């Protein structure tokens, strides 16, 4: 067992002593120098945490040092492994391992330093401690150092070991102080005044190493101190774990706790009254004046106040900051944010004031007992104060608010604060401590001013004191500026911050300029604060509040729609504000130029402002919609309005903030430009910035106007209220829609019973006449009549003289005007108004005329221009995006009877017969022909060659014709008889075939009203209708060649012969057709449609009936299926359907994504409806895919007489125009205008096949055809006066075609 002894050493004449453990047997201390360093390599092989050799295990006891009241060491928390220091420790160890793996030669002596040995530290300290000439008591000491120098040097040596072994922070100097005192006790260095006081971590006392000053060291020799720093060694117990003391009483982990926690030196020293006069000889004291004595008293008082102030700063860090961490009274998730928000940079202030106190102590030590100079100390420290104090004091208001909020919401923290207040009743509360730096900063100039007044004018300290006072007051000014910059102050102006003496040094214009710069910066700070409030009061709560105010799925979409790029604007203005604040802090009170930050900002934020201002109407619209439709959001907005930071401002005010702010810049800069001298650098730059801002304001207005119109469209979508049967899907949400004009007009009802106000809206595609009505605080627009499609609108007389009306406003919203009065009998006063008429025509189902009135001439002119432009643009857009082109195929041969004058007879004989039908076909040799049926026969000729037309059938009253090309049969309905002709007899391909052509056959006995040819169950069938009393009889025939030998659907029996006989009469055999089926309905039949080769739909007065035929019997199913008994709300729909005439049924293919069941479009003479494959309504308000809620019918624009399908379109023929609509949504894509428009032919068989394909047909795909599948006729003016020409056109589909809803 090793034997150890303890030695007590003390300086001569001192009662203080230190107990140091010395190994036994003691070794002779080597002479300091390189030889000693080399001997350190012979230590034990046991390695420390850092990899360096460790000394042998010792049985140690705690070393206690005497209590020294002069030592000021605030308790610093011990950080154990497992905290945030682990990363630092790991980095240090990795660095050590990297150094050990270095194969190169290492001459660094620190690699052989073992801080466990006191001798190692002593040698290193003697080499490293800084020495200089120091003064104490007006005596200079060369090669001297202070106690702080010694502690700092030791700390740099052991701080890495402290971090690795104990996790003690690098600013904890107490162990270094103990080591320094141990070396002092072994006389390794001495106090220059031999006071015997233990070394303190301050600058009050001076020390030397023996021999450094070439003077006799007396008892102090150069014997190397010996001992073991037990707290830096490892525990001998193998079960000891880092971070926690083990069972051993001498465990280093336990010793370091006792050393640091029980250190009396850690108690903060109290300020001591320095009675400087008692230490001054009477003869010298007698030479001092009263002013000199008061000056010295004031300086001592200043130092004493500074010591007390430092104690309070220490208490903030040692108790509150440490207590908050160790007691865990603040949740970990926002602990760092709380400490930063409440204490801010208090540690930086503490360091600044400690340096000030040390400098004052040095000055006191050097010049005691009479301090001659003190101003230079404050001049030097003022620069440090300027970097620390403004930051802290400007955050006091926020820190106090944060502290109060935490005390209200955190009971544990409040208890922690109250506990300290009860234990230390004489100590200031935390709130008071936080305000101490502000008070202390304001006291410095006052104290120095008192000292200056007591200082002799000839003293060199006068200039330093004056400069110090000015510097500290500048710090106060910067602090006030920083507070204004951070917290805002609308009442503070530049004139209030600047003293009259300073303002008097500059002209009045410059004062106004500086005041404007200050206003610009101040209002910019308020603006940035308001933009930040948008995030703190609205955006973040909307994202985090639970339960959510807005559905989570659309919260982000709502935030994007309402707040848009507000964060981008905020970033630009934060940068501008930081630049302006930096200028203000550096150059206040006279800022030379602001053009650089302003010009940079104006150029960078242009795009962001363009986007925001353009989007602002859309933001406001989405906000208003959410407030109206979401009561929870409305409450949220009201609560945010009552927030203290909101200043009773609504969310709309914050969203609108960027728009007036942009205009405010230009106003301030213009005024600033007026106060800037012409030669100033800002003069030209400010003009350029104003131009940029003005251009930005003008440019952004265009986007805002466009967005405003878009929002108006959205509002009209929700606010337009249609009357039953007048609903039109206006597609106002479409991006191509726009509002051309809207204003209030007047109209006079029939009978002249008063005049009424109307609100007329001119969209780019419809003209809508409404009346305004207030409903629950929301303006609704009641549509007076069905909106007018612009293609069907023509402008009437806009030049009529205005009638004079005697007018007065009634109590309601109606303008009541008396009948016209004689102008001469009344003077033109306010009681008389001239109303300017505007006449407009509409060609819809019936031709309509309306006369509206404006109350001034300019309004009428504006309406005329707007209408003309809108109609012209609509026609141009329609012409450029047409679905069909009209190509003439028989021009100039057919004339309206009575319109051909003898003197204008054309070369060829004109045909003056009404065109009723047409059939295109092709011959085997490839020639394209067309057969045209007229009232006087059938003409056939080459297509697009009118002169080739020749009459081939001389029969009268031809109403229908059809061709069965696979059978060579041409069918004609004339005078209510159906005739079958061999096509070879009409257009012979050869003379031989013409000779053997079959003679014509009559297929009916009774009058035939119409016929239809189509495909059913892969058979070509002919269906025609006759009348039997009030019943309609439908005869179904099949061409003979179409019958197969194995047919089981048709039996050649006597009954069938009788059936055939009833059709053709006389019992004669029919060589052309054979009967397939017959059925009858007790109502009028209009037509037959073949769908998908499997269904035949009969159109009758009862509606649509699906017929299922098996050759002998027929069964019918009526559609649509409306169960009015279960759903009484369907009764009005059923009544309107029953009163309408069916015109066609087509299969609709939806463009909506996903699987959609088959739908069918039922077309009536006035409207259309969609049904599903079960016959039920498919597009009602419940589904809402295409038709507005509560609306079922798709209203046609005209009085439709014929409907044909040309996938993907449906064409509705009226006498004056053709409506081309999409088949899947019935949106109008084209209007073809004309006179006496008639559909002559449509390829129904091709349309049925193309329509049966799944999905929409694109150009080039199967089922799509560039050929004309529809022919029509219309009446056009001829080349000669009075001529009326009947033209035959084919409708050619465009390639490619993209539907654009109208």
From TrEMBL:
Segments of skewed composition (Polar residues): 1-11
The Pro residues compositionally biased stretches are 23-33
Citing just one GO molecular function, the answer is: guanyl-nucleotide exchange factor activity
Domain DH: start-end pairs:
294-475, 512-696
Q: Does the keyword Phosphoprotein apply?
A: yes
CNH domain residues are 912-1247
The positions making up the signal sequence are none
Which PANTHER family is this protein grouped with?
RHO1 GDP-GTP EXCHANGE PROTEIN 1-RELATED, RHO1 GUANINE NUCLEOTIDE EXCHANGE FACTOR TUS1
Q: What is this protein called?
A: Dbl homology domain-containing protein
């Amino acid at each position: 067992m090793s034997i150890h002894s303890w030695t007590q050493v003390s300086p001569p004449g001192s009662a203080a002593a230190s107990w140091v453990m010395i190994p036994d047997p003691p070794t002779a201390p080597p002479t300091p120098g390189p030889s000693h360093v080399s001997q350190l390599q012979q230590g034990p092989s046991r390695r420390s945490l850092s990899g360096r050799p460790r000394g042998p295990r010792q049985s140690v006891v705690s070393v206690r040092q005497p209590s020294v009241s002069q030592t000021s060491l605030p308790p610093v928390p011990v950080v154990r492994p497992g905290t945030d220091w682990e990363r630092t420790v790991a980095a240090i160890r990795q660095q050590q391992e990297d150094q050990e793996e270095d194969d190169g030669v290492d001459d660094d002596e620190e690699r052989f330093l073992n801080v466990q040995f006191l001798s190692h530290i002593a040698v290193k300290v003697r080499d490293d401690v800084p020495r200089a000439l120091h003064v104490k008591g007006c005596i200079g000491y060369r090669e001297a150092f202070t106690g702080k120098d010694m502690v700092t040097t030791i700390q740099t040596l052991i701080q890495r070991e402290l971090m690795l072994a104990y996790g003690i922070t690098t600013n904890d100097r107490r162990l270094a102080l103990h080591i320094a005192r141990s070396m002092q006790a072994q006389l390794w260095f001495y106090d220059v005044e031999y006071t015997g006081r233990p070394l303190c971590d301050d600058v009050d006392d001076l020390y030397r190493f023996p021999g450094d000053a070439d003077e006799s060291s007396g008892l102090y020799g150069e014997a190397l101190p010996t001992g073991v720093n037990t707290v830096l060694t490892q525990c001998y117990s193998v079960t000891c774990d880092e971070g926690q003391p083990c069972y051993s009483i001498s465990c280093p982990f336990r010793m370091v706790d006792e050393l640091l926690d029980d250190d009396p030196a850690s108690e903060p020293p109290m300020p001591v009254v320095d009675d400087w006069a008692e230490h001054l000889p009477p003869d010298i004291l007698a030479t001092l004046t009263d002013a000199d004595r008061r000056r010295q008293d004031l300086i001592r008082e200043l130092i004493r106040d500074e010591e007390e102030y430092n104690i309070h700063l220490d208490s903030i860090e040692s108790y509150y900051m440490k207590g908050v961490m160790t007691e865990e009274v603040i949740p970990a998730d926002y602990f760092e944010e709380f400490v930063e928000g409440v204490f801010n940079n208090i540690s930086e202030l503490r360091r600044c004031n400690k340096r000030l106190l040390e400098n004052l102590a040095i000055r006191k030590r050097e010049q005691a007992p009479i301090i001659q100079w003190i101003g230079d100390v404050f001049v030097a420290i003022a620069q440090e104060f300027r970097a620390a104090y403004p930051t802290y004091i400007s955050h006091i208001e926020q820190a106090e608010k944060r502290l109060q909020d935490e005390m209200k919401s955190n009971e544990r923290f409040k208890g922690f604060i109250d506990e300290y207040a009860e234990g230390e009743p004489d100590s200031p509360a935390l709130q008071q401590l936080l305000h101490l730096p502000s008070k202390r900063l304001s006291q410095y100039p006052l104290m120095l001013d008192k000292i200056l007044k007591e200082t002799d004018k000839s003293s060199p300290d006068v200039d330093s004191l004056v400069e110090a006072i000015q510097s500290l007051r500048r710090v106060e000014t910067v602090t006030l500026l920083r507070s204004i910059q951070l917290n805002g102050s609308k009442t503070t102006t530049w004139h209030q911050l600047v003293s009259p003496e300073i303002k008097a040094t500059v002209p009045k214009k410059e004062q106004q300029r500086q005041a404007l710069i200050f206003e610009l910066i101040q209002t910019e700070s308020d603006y940035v604060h308001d933009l930040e409030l948008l995030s703190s009061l609205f955006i973040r709560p909307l994202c985090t509040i639970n339960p959510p105010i807005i559905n989570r799925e659309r919260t982000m979409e709502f935030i994007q729609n309402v707040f848009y790029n507000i964060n981008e604007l905020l970033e630009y203005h934060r940068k501008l504000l930081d630049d302006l604040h930096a200028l203000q802090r550096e150059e206040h009170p006279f800022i030379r130029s602001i053009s650089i930050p302003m010009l940079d900002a104006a150029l960078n934020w242009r795009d962001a402002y363009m986007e925001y201002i353009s989007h602002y109407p859309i933001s406001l619209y989405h906000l208003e919609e959410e407030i109206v439709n979401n009561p929870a959001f409305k409450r949220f907005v009201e609560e945010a309005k009552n927030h203290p930071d909101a200043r009773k401002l609504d969310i709309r005010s914050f969203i609108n903030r960027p728009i007036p702010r942009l205009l405010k810049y230009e106003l301030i800069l213009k005024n600033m430009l007026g106060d800037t001298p012409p030669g100033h650098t800002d003069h030209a730059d400010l003009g350029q910035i104003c131009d940029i801002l003005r251009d930005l304001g003008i440019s952004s207005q265009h986007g805002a106007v466009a967005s405003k119109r878009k929002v108006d469209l959205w509002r009209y979508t929700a606010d337009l209220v249609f009357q039953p049967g007048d609903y039109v899907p206006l597609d106002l949400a479409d991006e191509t829609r726009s509002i051309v004009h809207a204003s209030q007009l007047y109209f006079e009802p029939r009978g002249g019973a008063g005049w009424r106000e109307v609100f007329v809206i001119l969209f780019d595609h419809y003209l809508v006449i409404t009346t305004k009505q207030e409903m629950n605080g929301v303006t609704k627009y009641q549509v007076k009549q069905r909106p007018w499609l612009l293609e069907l609108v023509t402008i009437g007389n806009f030049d009529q003289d205005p009638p004079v009306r005697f007018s007065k406003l009634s109590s309601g919203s109606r303008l009541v005007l008396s009948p016209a009065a004689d102008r001469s009998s009344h003077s033109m006063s306010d009681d008389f108004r001239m109303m300017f008429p505007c006449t407009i025509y509409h060609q819809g189902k019936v031709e309509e005329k309306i006369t509206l009135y404006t109350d001034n001439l300019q309004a009428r002119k504006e309406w005329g221009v707007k209408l003309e432009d809108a109609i012209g643009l609509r026609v141009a857009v329609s012409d450029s995006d047409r679905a069909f082109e009209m190509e003439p195929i028989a021009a100039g041969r057919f004339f309206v009877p009575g319109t051909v004058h003898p003197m204008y007879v054309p070369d060829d004989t004109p045909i003056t017969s009404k065109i009723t039908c047409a059939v295109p076909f092709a011959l085997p040799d490839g020639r394209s022909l067309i057969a045209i049926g007229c009232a006087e026969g059938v003409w056939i000729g080459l297509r697009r060659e009118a002169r080739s037309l020749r009459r081939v059938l001389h029969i009268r009253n031809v109403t229908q014709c059809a061709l069965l090309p696979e059978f060579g049969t041409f069918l004609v309905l004339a005078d209510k008889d159906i005739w079958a002709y061999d096509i070879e007899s009409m257009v012979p391909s050869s003379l031989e075939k013409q000779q053997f052509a079959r003679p014509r056959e009559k297929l009916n006995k009774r009058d035939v009203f119409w016929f239809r040819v189509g495909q059913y169950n892969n058979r070509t069938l002919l269906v025609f209708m006759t009348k039997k009393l009030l019943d309609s009889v439908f005869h179904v025939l099949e061409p003979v060649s179409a019958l197969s030998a194995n047919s089981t659907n048709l039996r050649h029996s006597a009954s069938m012969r009788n059936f055939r006989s009833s059709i053709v009469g006389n019992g004669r055999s029919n060589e052309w057709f054979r009967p397939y089926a017959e059925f009858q309905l007790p109502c009028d039949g209009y037509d037959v449609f073949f769908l998908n080769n499997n269904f035949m739909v009969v159109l009758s007065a009862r509606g649509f009936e699906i017929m299922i035929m098996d050759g002998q019997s027929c069964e019918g199913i009526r559609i649509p299926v409306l169960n009015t008994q279960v759903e009484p709300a369907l009764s009005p729909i059923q009544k309107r359907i029953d009163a309408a005439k069916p015109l066609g049924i087509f299969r609709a293919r939806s463009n909506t994504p996903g699987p959609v069941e088959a739908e069918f479009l039922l077309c009536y003479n006035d409207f259309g409806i969609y049904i599903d494959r079960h016959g039920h309504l498919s597009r009602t308000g419940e589904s809402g895919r295409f038709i507005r809620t509560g609306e079922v019918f798709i209203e046609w624009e005209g009085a439709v007489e014929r409907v044909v399908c040309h996938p993907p379109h449906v064409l509705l023929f009226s006498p004056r125009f053709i409506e081309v609509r999409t088949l899947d949504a019935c949106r109008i894509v084209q209007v073809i205008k004309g006179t006496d428009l008639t559909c002559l032919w449509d390829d129904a068989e091709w349309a049925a096949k193309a329509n049966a394909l799944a999905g929409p047909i694109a150009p080039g795909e199967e089922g799509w055809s560039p050929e004309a599948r529809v022919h029509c006729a219309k009446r056009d003016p001829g080349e000669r006066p009075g001529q009326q020409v009947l033209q035959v056109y084919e409708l050619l589909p465009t390639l490619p075609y993209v539907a654009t809803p109208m």
